[in-house]
Specification:
The complex is a heterodimer of chains A (1131) and B (327). Chain A has 1131 residues and is α/β, with parallel strands linked by helices. Helices cover 44% and strands 13% of the residues of chain A. Chain A is globular and about 95 Å long. The chains are: A alpha/beta (1131), B alpha+beta (327).
Chain lengths: 1131, 327
């Protein structure tokens, strides 16, 4: 029988495995194996991918895990002495526990394996950390269906390595008792010298021990990677796991790859010879291995439950067993009557057809489950709304899950669910991001932890983490490693060398890339491997009570929610029902704004009430038309603003369309221009055939929505909408496209359309391809857009408070604050007498509402300190503040420097306050009991007059604000550079309106965003926006790739920029096509050093000199993020 | 101008006697600063040699280059502090002499860190208060400076800054206050065995230096430098001042173990010893024959090194494997 590898770790083993399971399966198939086991370290998370990969390659999959167990026997070595805490560098990572391999033979084995891992995780959480250890009692209790392999890392074989075969034999006894005939010893031969794990001597001794103790012994290779040259990757992973650099002499050796059967046979020969069993020993070893593999018969579909969905029991959603469909119908019908829809026959028909489809497909319980979750969420007072195509279903609306009424909004059900789609429809719900965990807990409480788990998300090595791991493993200095890692954008690790070659902003680094030797190939080798696991921030799993038998769960690190080890794709394959609960910060911001309105003015505003917050408020729409859409949901990016400027939305439907048009597809397919021309009346809307007018009327003849594609198909081929949805899906699949075209042409010819019409419509549909957006999804989004725009237009101060509190947008907070200031909202700085940990709206003397900056944004403040400061208000003087609020010294310094203590100063300026704080701190430290009020404070604090310390200049105050808060609160930071910029002849944002198209201008400002989205021409284009503090808002810039050579480095790495370019216009929106960029700070410094001559020299110095170090402004101050950088979507 | 500071690039220890000899010919008040150069008080020498300060500086630089083979940078000023600041502005081979009338202006232009008594922490604190140069510090009233830096230090700093008052004398033939030895590792060193070996080598090196200088160590300071450029320092006073390498070694081991390092990436180890003259120390005899023998061996090592050069006799643990092919 052929050999089977029984001990294999894939990339799913965090910081241990060197190859992904797809690669392992592929190599195994190439090398002629018939079956392959997957025994990841401490997890079962790779099981589904392994099953799929094996099915693709035609291998039989085996499943298991490599776990640490508690020590059974008395310690062979000296008792553990508790080592002292090291002064620097941290303690060794403890990996001393013995390890074993468990293989699942059948479904019971799998279930026991899941239970063992879940219990081990709970035990670790209860103990507060440390190694993941399964206690021996746990294994004993769950031994059924499992085969155990005791390899070089297990206790008995460790005793063998220490030269104590007697102890080894004794330690085998409890294992024999627990596992009986399913106990195996594992011999591993990695050609190492000595007697340690992987050496020939130990393998031979293991075989000898098995023979003496009458046990079976298998041969394995303890595989960590697929190919022979990947040993260094394993070393880097070990270095990252153990947090130490790679030490010469303790490296991996390169032998732990997926060796073909012939090589394993050679190893078996060597072991047998060393053990004195030349005749037949090797054959015996190989045969035992093959037989052990034979016994493990786990069928992924039948035993793991792949491919079937398991709903929660009906009684949990308020229906007696078997009555779910009836309960659903009753609930929907009563909702229909309540809202007064039952007078419309169209509604009643729609409802009954939807209910019929739902019943036929067997999903009433699903809908009732989601409705229950939404009801529980609403009961907690949390804002909740459905997103996605579910908003198109009337049942979803009547159950209260979605807010927009589908029929009047022209939404169809078939995009969401129809008889031809057998897979489960996705109902995704948006909740307030700040209260998302509360929603999860509510679901847990309702359905119980045996039915609910969250979904995991693997953290993989991307380029920055890979550089850090490989750099520290190679022993490069940590500062240097950090600098290199930060200069890369967020790419995949395997693109590291390509990026070095191609990206101009990495040019300086590329020039001395040779210095780092093997770093780059190691970085690329780490691509896609797992570093750890985190909770996926969007979903919960619901199941019947068999959940814990099919997946292990572990408690998440921070919130202690149970989390399944499978990620979101694997979970679907396993038939676990996933409910996406997404936290949307804008919902939190709007809820916060409403709460602030109530607190400050007493007015109760319900933003879901159309009477109070209309969807087509004229002021809000005017604001959007002018491009003032910062912080408005979905419309704040430069491309979206430009589109709004051209589209000039006037109705709610316009918002829906805009959200759908602003996607990469429509931009690349040039759907926007014909739509705009028709919209603004420059062209009459043209329909290929009058039959299509009802479907395309709302978008002036242009196909924009998925629903319209469905309707067009249905009309042209005289079929139902369900078939139309199928056709739409086939449209984006190149494999199915020819068959689709043939069918379409045949049916439409039969329906009697002329060939010209058939061709034209096909062209339209083909161009759509995979583009197009679901109207239901866009409608759900547009609701939030309209609501946020209303709040911004009518309640600016509370709106900005909500936005600053929850930071929903892409831009840094300082830009939001700048806009608030420009719109006339009084900005009240941080003040320990008035500020709270959260942003607040304060009513001022003249009746206006001012925005008070929060204590939470002060760099380094803890939640406790913020609470203490707020609780102790008002303060009499500085000593009183210091005694009662007990701030740490760095925090007190920060507060003094930004002027938060000015109201306690009694005439002293900020530096004098620093001096007083230092003295108070010294006094407090000398006092024995910190709670004792010292009466000496008055005498210590000498009056401010006469310290002679220089006062902080305005520029220094501004720098302090940026450092401590990340925001320029007292005034705009560009104001200090006004003089120099006027001398250069810079054009401000509000002056750009008067500049004719094509003229060259100079613009300047602080970078607030930089993006490199994919564009039609596939060439890299840089979009960036500068905030120059003028009333005109933000200046949008475009840099095409011919300028990247000299401009990219400055654009990506510097913060304050000066740019020369030409003005271009599209509609009413203006942007500048850049040709040259400088760092403003460099120009200012040159001017200060050497006057106008030095300034001119700096301006003419265009190329970044290779000798100069790569100067780079961090994209964060300690206080917060300074600009947004991403790939971005097209505009 | 009465003080000049002569800085040698490089300043190896073995050149010190020759340098001292050359400089003593020019003026008797020479204070050697180990590994850096020397301070000379030249008030009398200017009158003796009947030269201007520039000519005297030329003389010093030429003689040192000719007789000791060392390139020097020279700074001169009315006080020791000014001379130090002046030499910090020079490249090797140059000279900068500050006359008494421009001394105050020069002083006030310097960064506050250059003032003796201001360390990195105080520099940061002063920076927060907006004090960047010595002139800024001089402009403050004395009371404020005392509040910032403490009563004594504050007064000293204020006097130095405002008036350039630096009464520290040049003490000739004063023994250097401390000496140190460093070992750098080519890669991050996590193995405690290798680190202890390095400490042994440092103890032996310190022993040699102490023997040469006829000094004893009173206090040892161990400084460990890590890969991220941070460092830890531990120090302890010896029970009895000694120059005996095994005692130094044991104390160094103790200091090292006290740090309890496990995963720290050590890049360099430095051991510094505070010195005293060995004529004023005593050694407690013991009845242990081993101790007696070790001291005798140490004396032998000293004489061997004089004859055959440093490193002729060393502990076996420091012996490295010979390169391949060597016999």
């Amino acid at each position: 029988m052929p050999y089977v590898h029984l001990h294999v770790a894939s990339g799913h083993s965090a910081r241990y495995g060197g190859s992904l399971s797809s690669d392992l399966a592929q190599r195994a198939a190439e090398r002629g194996f018939e079956a392959l086991a997957l025994t990841d370290r401490d997890t079962l998370g790779g099981a589904v991918r392994h099953a799929d990969a094996c099915a693709r390659e035609g291998l039989r999959p085996l499943f298991g895990a490599d776990l640490a167990v508690s020590a059974v026997g008395a310690a062979v070595s000296a008792p553990v002495v508790r080592a002292r805490t090291p002064v620097r560098g941290g303690a060794f990572v403890d990996e001393s526990a013995p390890r074993i391999v468990l293989l699942a033979r059948d479904r019971t084995g799998w279930m026991n394996l899941c239970r063992i891992i879940s219990a081990a995780h709970s035990a670790r959480a209860a103990a507060g950390g440390g190694q993941l250890i399964a206690s021996f009692d746990l294994l004993q209790g769950h031994a059924e269906g499992l085969t155990v392999l005791l390899g070089p890392a297990s206790e008995p074989v460790r005793a063998l390595a220490a030269g104590r075969p007697d102890v080894a034999a004794r330690l085998l006894a409890p294992w024999r008792e627990a596992f009986g005939p399913h106990l195996r010893l594992e011999a591993v031969h990695h050609r190492r010298t000595g007697t340690g794990p992987g050496s020939l001597r130990l393998a031979a001794r293991t075989v000898g021990l098995a023979r003496e103790a009458d046990l079976l012994c298998v041969l394995s290779n303890a595989v960590r990677y697929a190919d022979p040259g990947q040993g260094p990757i394993a070393d880097v992973l070990d270095a990252d796991r153990l947090l130490m650099p790679v030490r010469p002499g303790r490296t991996d050796g390169g032998e732990r790859w997926l060796k073909p059967g012939a090589d394993m046979a050679v190893l078996a020969e060597e072991i047998a010879r060393a053990a004195g069993l030349e005749r037949g020993g090797a054959a015996h070893l190989l045969a035992t291995t093959a037989r052990t593999a034979e016994e493990c018969r786990l069928d992924p579909a039948a035993d793991l439950g792949l491919g079937r969905v398991h709903f929660p029991e009906e009684r949990l959603v308020g229906a007696a067993p078997g009555t779910a469909a009836r309960v659903l119908r009753e609930r929907c019908e009563s909702a229909l009557r309540e809202r007064g829809y039952d007078r419309t026959p169209a509604m009643r028909e729609r409802l009954s057809s939807e209910l019929q489809v739902i019943s036929t497909l067997g999903w009433p319980t699903y809908f009732l489950t989601v409705a229950q979750v939404v009801d529980d969420t609403r009961a907690l007072g949390i804002r909740v709304q459905a997103r996605g195509s579910a908003a198109g279903s009337l049942v979803v609306h009547l159950l209260g899950i979605s807010v927009a009424e589908p029929v009047s909004n022209g939404l169809i059900m078939e995009r969401f669910l129809n008889l031809r789609r057998k897979s489960l429809p996705d109902i995704d719900i948006d909740v307030e991001s700040a209260r998302r965990i509360e929603v999860y807990r509510a679901v847990l409480e309702r359905f119980g932890p045996e039915r609910v788990a969250t979904v995991s998300m693997p953290e993989t090595y991307r380029v920055r983490h890979a550089i850090r791991a490989a750099g520290l493993a190679l022993g490069i200095a940590p500062d240097e490693v950090g600098k290199i890692a930060k200069s890369f954008p967020h790419l995949r690790a395997r693109d590291a060398r390509t990026a070095l070659r191609e990206l101009p902003e990495l040019r300086t680094l590329a020039q001395h890339a040779e210095r780092y030797g093997r770093l780059w190939e190691l970085v690329e080798g780490l691509d896609g491997l797992h570093r750890g696991v985190a909770m996926h921030p969007c979903g919960v799993l619901l199941s019947d009570d068999s959940l814990l038998q099919r997946t292990p769960v572990l408690p998440t690190a921070t919130e202690h929610l149970p989390m399944s080890v499978f990620d979101k794709d694997d979970v679907e394959r396993m038939g676990l029902l996933k409910l996406d609960i997404l936290g949307v910060r804008m919902q939190s911001s709007m809820a916060y704004a409403v709460a602030e309105i109530r607190r400050a003015t007493g007015r109760v505003l319900d933003i879901d009430d159309r009477a109070q917050v209309p969807l087509e408020d004229p002021e809000a729409l005017q604001m959007l038309r002018e491009g003032q859409s910062l912080s408005v949901f979905q419309l704040e990016s430069p491309g979206a603003r430009e589109l709004a400027g051209r589209l000039r939305p006037e109705t709610f439907q316009d918002l829906v369309t805009e959200i759908s048009l602003f996607r990469p597809g429509p931009v690349q397919a040039d759907m926007i221009r014909p739509f705009l021309e028709a919209r603004h009346g420059k062209l009459r809307p043209r329909y290929p055939h009058p039959d299509l007018e009802p479907a395309l009327k709302v978008t002036y003849g242009v196909v924009v929505f998925n629903e319209q594609v469905i309707e067009v198909f249905a009309v042209m081929t005289r079929t139902d909408l369900a078939m139309g949805e199928e056709a739409r899906r086939a449209l984006s699949d190149p494999a199915r496209l020819p068959a689709l075209e043939a069918w379409y042409r045949e049916r439409s010819r039969q329906a009697g359309y002329t060939p010209a019409v058939i061709d034209e419509v096909w062209q339209l549909l083909e161009n759509m391809g995979s583009y197009g957006f679901a109207r239901s999804h866009a409608t759900a989004f547009a609701l939030a857009t309209a609501q946020s725009a209303y709040l911004k237009a009518h309640f600016p101060a509370p709106f900005y408070a909500g936005v600053l509190e929850h930071d929903p947008g892409m831009y840094p907070k300082r830009l939001v604050l700048g806009e608030a200031r420009r719109r006339g909202v009084p900005i009240l700085p941080v003040d320990v007498q008035h500020s709270t940990p959260h942003y607040r709206v304060e009513a001022l003397a003249d009746g206006q509402l001012g925005l008070r900056i929060a204590l939470a944004d002060v760099h380094g403040i803890t939640a406790d300190e913020a609470e203490r400061i707020a609780a102790g208000q008002p303060y009499a003087d500085l000593g009183d503040f210091h005694t009662r609020a007990r701030p740490s010294l760095p925090l007190a310094h920060g507060l003094a420097r930004i002027g938060a203590l000015d109201s306690l100063a009694h005439g002293a300026h900020r530096r004098e306050l620093l001096l007083q704080l230092d003295e108070l701190h010294r006094t407090r430290r000398q006092v024995a009991m910190p709670a004792q009020l010292t009466l000496a404070t008055d005498a210590e604090v000498v009056t401010a007059a006469g310290t002679g310390l220089p006062a902080m200049s305005e520029q220094e105050q501004l720098d302090a604000e940026l450092e401590v808060l990340g925001m320029d609160t007292s005034r705009h930071l560009m104001a200090s550079h006004h003089e120099l910029l006027t001398e250069l002849g810079v054009t401000w944002a509000h002056q750009l309106r008067e500049v004719p198209t094509g003229q060259t201008v100079l613009v300047a400002g602080a970078k607030v965003a930089i993006q490199t989205p994919p564009t039609r021409s596939k060439r890299r284009t840089i979009f960036t926006s500068l905030d120059d503090g003028s009333p005109g808002g933000v200046v949008d810039l475009v840099f095409f790739d011919d300028t990247h050579e000299h401009a990219a480095h400055v654009l990506f790495h510097r913060w304050l920029l000066v740019v020369r370019g030409q003005v271009q216009r599209r509609g009413t929106s203006i942007s500048v096509v850049g040709e040259q960029a400088w760092s403003l700070v460099d120009l200012v410094q040159a001017h200060q050093r050497g006057g106008p001559a030095a300034l001119r020299a700096a301006l003419s110095d265009t190329a970044p000199s290779p000798a100069a170090p790569a100067v780079s402004d961090g994209d964060r101050t300690p206080g917060g993020r300074l600009w947004h950088a991403s790939a971005g979507s097209a505009g | 101008m009465t003080v000049i500071y002569v800085r040698c690039h490089p300043a190896p220890i073995e050149m010190e006697p020759r340098l001292l000899a050359v400089l003593t010919e020019i003026t008797p008040t020479v204070q050697l600063l180990p590994r850096d150069g020397a301070l000379l008080s030249v008030g009398g020498a200017l009158r003796y040699w009947k030269r201007t300060p520039e000519q005297l500086t030329d003389l010093v630089q030429t003689r040192v280059l000719a007789q000791a083979g060392l390139t020097t940078a020279v700074g001169g000023g009315p006080t020791r502090m000014i001379a130090t600041m002046a030499v910090n502005t020079c490249a090797p081979g140059q000279a900068r002499l500050i006359a008494a009338d421009e001394a105050l202006g020069f002083l006030h232009r310097q960064a506050v860190r250059a003032l003796p008594g201001v360390g990195p922490v105080l520099e940061r604190t002063l920076g927060q208060y907006g004090i960047a140069t010595v002139g800024d510090l001089a402009a403050l009233p004395m009371g404020t400076v005392q509040r910032i830096a403490g009563a004594t230090l504050g007064r000293q700093l204020h006097e130095r800054a405002a008036r350039g008052f630096d009464p520290r004398p040049i003490a000739p033939a004063a023994l250097a206050a401390s000496t140190s030895a460093t070992r750098r590792f080519p890669r991050d060193e996590l193995d405690p065995v290798q680190r202890r070996r390095a400490l042994l080598a440092l103890a032996c090196e310190l022993g040699t230096v102490l023997r040469t200088r006829r000094a004893v160590a009173i206090r040892l300071t161990l400084s460990v430098q890590y890969a991220d450029a941070s460092h830890s320092t531990r120090s302890r006073t010896l029970g009895e001042p000694t120059a005996h390498p095994p005692v130094l070694r044991d104390l160094a081991y103790q200091l090292h173990d006290g740090l309890g390092l496990q995963r720290a990436r050590v890049r360099a180890l430095t051991v510094a010893a505070d010195l005293a003259d060995d004529r004023c120390t005593a050694h407690q005899l013991t009845l242990d024959p081993g101790d007696e023998q070790r001291r005798r061996i140490e004396a032998v090592i000293g004489r061997t090194e004089i004859r055959y050069g440093p490193g002729a006799l060393a502990p076996a643990a420091l012996a490295t494997t010979p390169p391949a092919g060597a016999r």
